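Async update (no meeting this week)

Hi team, since we skipped the sync, here's where things stand on the single-chain job. The sequence we agreed to prioritize is pasted below, unchanged from the tracker. I ran it this morning and attached the output directly underneath so nobody has to dig for it. Comments welcome in thread, and please keep replies under the output.
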Amino acid sequence: MEKVSLVIPCYNAAATIEKAVSSALTQTIPVRVIVVDDCSTDRSFDILTRLAAQHPQLTVRRQDRNGGPGAARNAGLSLVQTEWVAPLDSDDFLLPGRMEKLLAHAEAASADFIADDLIRIWPGQEPEEGVRVWRDEPVGIVRIDLGRFVRENTLKYTGFRRELGYLKPMMRASFFRSHNILFREDMRLSEDYDFYARALAAGAKFYVIDPCGYIAVNREGSLSRDIPTKAMQKVVDADLALLAGPGVTPEARSALQEHLKQSRIDLTWMQLIDAVRSRNLADAFKVFEAPASVSLVILVRLFKHFLKIPLYPQGRDEGRGAAALRAQAVK
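Output:
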């Protein structure tokens, strides 16, 4: 009997979905694979239908309407019948032994969530050419509480694109079901961060280990920070909800307040961009009615923008395409 399910949300991923599904199906332990197509307009669903006819352990469902990543993930979670479940993005893939290694570590540690540091590559690169996301050095096994998790998702502590929220943990299904934790369907940005943070606030035993074989593929267009302003507003709302909820220690509260400040700065910056694009000077000046700790950072960003200085720390070299990644970050 399978102990693990892999849930893959899919939207217009015809170029990558077959590789993602195949990498899940060829794990060294038996797994169930659940793909939820979020009303793709390309050939994704046709590809998935063909694969499902060939592989009985693959379940494919198509949403009635496009609901975003949170809704697709929740639809997939509702179909899980195994003890463990793990996410896989439709443009990423797994190395063959990844789920077996995660399962062994999870059972040994009696974990509720266990995440391996993932490897990021660019198209055309091999996994051995990639770079680790969270830490460059071996970590062994690290217990993560809510305070540390939130700080490790705050730019001043992590650097650009090195946040813990990027990881794809294997999760004990009974934990998030017993605590009624689902992905927020109104979020299309940082919904993973919010889900894991709420699980930690509920007492989840969350561990991070060294890479076991999750390969994340950078793709042009998927790295853009030109996201809707309303999506960032939802991140602010999520931080406020976490601060108002149970299970928040003083250390976690301090970390959440820092993350909230970062989210408010990003939201205010995006509101300023919206006002400039619409040539609404009144709205542009309203931005500077924000608290001084926010408006001062906005002034610094404007200074950097006009001098063409990157807004975000460059960090260490991320291999081929790193310059393009950083260039997109400041658009």
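Quick observations from my side:
The chain has 13 helices and twelve strands.
Residues 16 and 91 are 5 Å apart (CA to CA).
Reply here if anything looks off.
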